[in-house]
User: Fold this.
Amino acid sequence: MNREVNEQGELLIAGIPAKELAEQYGTPLYVYDVERIRQNARAFIQTFKDYEVRAQVAYASKAFSSIAMLQVAKQEELSLDVVSEGELYTALEAEFPVEKIHMHGNNKSLKELEMAVDHKIGCIVVDNFYEIELLSSILEQKQTTMEVLLRVTPGIEAHTHDYILTGQEDSKFGFDLSSGQAEEAFLKISQQKRLKLKGLHCHIGSQIFETSGFTMATRKLFQAMQDWRKRHGFLAEVLNLGGGFGIQYTSEDDPLDLNQYAHALIKEVKEQSSMLSYPMPEIWIEPGRAIAGDAGVTLYTVGSIKNIPGVRTYLSVDGGMTDNIRPALYQAKYEAVLASKMNQPMEQEYTIAGKCCESGDMLIWEVELPKADHKDLLAMFSTGAYGYAMANNYNRFQKSAVVFAEGGEHSLVVRREDYREMTRLDLSYEKREGKQA
Ligand SMILES: Cc1ncc(COP(=O)(O)O)c(C=O)c1O
Ligand SMILES: N[C@@H](CCCC[NH3+])C(=O)O
Assistant:
């Protein structure tokens, strides 16, 4: 975790005092340590290189999509996973190599699919029967082809919050393996000459610590691949095992090093392919959180402090569920510090409250801090994934700014929203003659 402190007892982010960043850009502020993003990306990429296996590490841009972020992903030679026109548009603005972009989604629209086809992206991960037809007709109309993966749900219940589980049978994503639906989809795709099936995809969920879920899913996919090879002569060139690698949010979390996740997958794929005499497929993965999560810190300014004797002390900050909805949505836990009191003793337990009109708008239910005062700077760690990405304008709060810090320098990469921008979609309504208001 980013806990670098200078002699004055101030928190540094990528070597820069958090206070300096807050003063220059205001709060709430998302700050990314860009070197950390690079290290995370390299941990995955290097492991595949070390084992000399063909691979693609696609950054799941849903975790945090912005032009600057995708430029860093491109510099690190990552591929990219997008799930919407908006994410694809951002990738195109960042001049991300189109052939390394993969598109996901359980309900891709005609427009999304057309955009993907028109821009000749590398691959579409097909999710349902309707999409097979829709995509085939677009390709027919445009007289072109598209490489696809078939997304299957392997029936694995990984250990994580119910809302971020995706590999179980009862899921809105993908084709179920056990009922034969996945094979039916495989046959449908095989009949479409414009769909070029490269292999299979699965994603079992998110914020997963153990490797057993990933290895079990790998075995299930190999079983299917072996069956389809025998029955239909199909050989998968690509096996995409999704993302979901867990990271540290609090000291209670004990994730593996990123290279260990990659190592476990490589080992299992190698074992399965040798056991079944199956030509080694290219391994694709799609980490989002593991690349952006622990590189991000959110800075807030402390406002009101309310003590209810014998109950708790609420410390309210100038953001909340508008910039980080994860605690309210998943009961996600975080750690925080007072950025200019890093050397002071912990004196009190606080509950960090957001400023939205919701009792559930809490960022951290219990955290030990030095004695806090109004205007103190609070830093919350590991907020780089699904924080800004899930930000919203509830109560018409402005979206925060985002700053990238690297090599002792910092730069604004997403401007803070202003009120004019917040109301940019609103149109006025005049009462007209003859119409009831
Ligand atoms: C298909 C797919 N790939 C990749 C990811 C990225 O997951 P994570 O950020 O946990 O690595 C997700 C989100 O859970 C996903 O749905
Ligand atoms: N947004 C979720 C994870 C879902 C990822 C996409 N399938 C989170 O914050 O943990």
Remarks:
- Residues 166 and 205 are 5 Å apart (CA to CA).
- The chain has two domains: 4-31+294-422, 104-286.
- The longest strand covers residues 296-308.
- DSSP finds twelve helices and 21 strands in the chain.
